[in-house]
Amino acid sequence: MPPTAGLDPAKIDFQKYYFYGTILNVPPILAFYPMRTVRILQQRKSSVPVSSSIFTVIKDVQQKNGFRALFAGVTVFSLGLTTTKILQFATYDYTLQQVKQHDHFGLQVLKNPSVLSSAIGMFSAVVTTFFVVPFDMVSQQITIAKAGAQGNIVPAAAAATAATVATPLVPGPTSLTAKLPTLTPTQPMPISESLKLQYKQEGVRFLFRGYVATLMSTVPFFAAYFPAYETSKVWVKNGIQWVRAQQPSSSAPFPPPELDQLLISSIAGSIASLTGVLISSPSDMVKTRIQTEQRLQLPGSTLSKAPLPPLRWMDVFVEIWRKEGFMKFFAGTKARAILAVPGGALNFVIFDFVRSVSIIKEPPLPNTRSQIPVSTKEALC
Prior knowledge:
Elements: H1 14-23, H2 26-43, H3 54-65, H4 74-101, H5 113-147, H6 174-177, H7 191-202, H8 211-245, H9 260-292, H10 313-324, H11 333-358, H12 374-380
Helix pairs in contact: 1-4, 1-11, 2-11, 4-5, 5-8, 8-9, 9-10, 9-11
């Protein structure tokens, strides 16, 4: 649920709200970022098979590229996500204000708080998608370059020519003294150079590659997320009441009443996040394939000046279906669920805390009776 739902804007210090809401979202990103790395490696197009086991992928990355490789791209991703969080909050608040000022635009359905929250939440997510895509795009390229054991960001091998082919051995003394050319292994291209080349080839379009695919992933996620949250919230509330009904004589019922909101929000948020992940997995798979596609054209090649055709969502979808099968659309779903489910719960826990520290405390009302003059008090008596 968007963060300011049900709050009186006049009683909230939004500078504190946005500041703490942004800062406190960073630790969960850092803690669960390796799951994002695993998801990207499992979903990308690779000539080398990638294990479906989360722990196997983590172990493989750690052994071949070091522990830090699991966090490759985290700086760019965190910067983009925390920045767009502020924008998403502001978009939600402004849209909610406009809807109420215009009397819900005459739409009776928007007067339902759940429907209004869902509609504005989806709208704010769609708006902020435009700003988060460049950060997501670059961070995924960095992840593959540094965490992918067999990354494809390398210059193409030189074509074999007469000068590079070893002289065949023939009978006679010359075969003993013939010098073979030294073959040097191809060095991986630095990620900074790769990004520069891709940007030079595709222009600004490179930074927004996968924008439509991101929308195709975002909309199904939130379309499933909000109804699942509202439904599971009722289930959790009924479950808490049932548990308390089993202990009628207890003076300290379990769970304690003061934890009701925390339990309802965190459990319902986790269920909603899991539902959104499952529904949007095929679209997320296509998005990752589009954004991580390596399309380098080396300078001097015959194709380096030819414009690259755009990667179309449907073309990538059909290619995955035909070559890898339907279940490939759910590659990385376990890692994505581990990333999203605790995140869904923490979002509400963080929100509750941020709300508590952002409420503007009103000064206590003065004791008006003590300020009445004595003569007036006597007259009143």
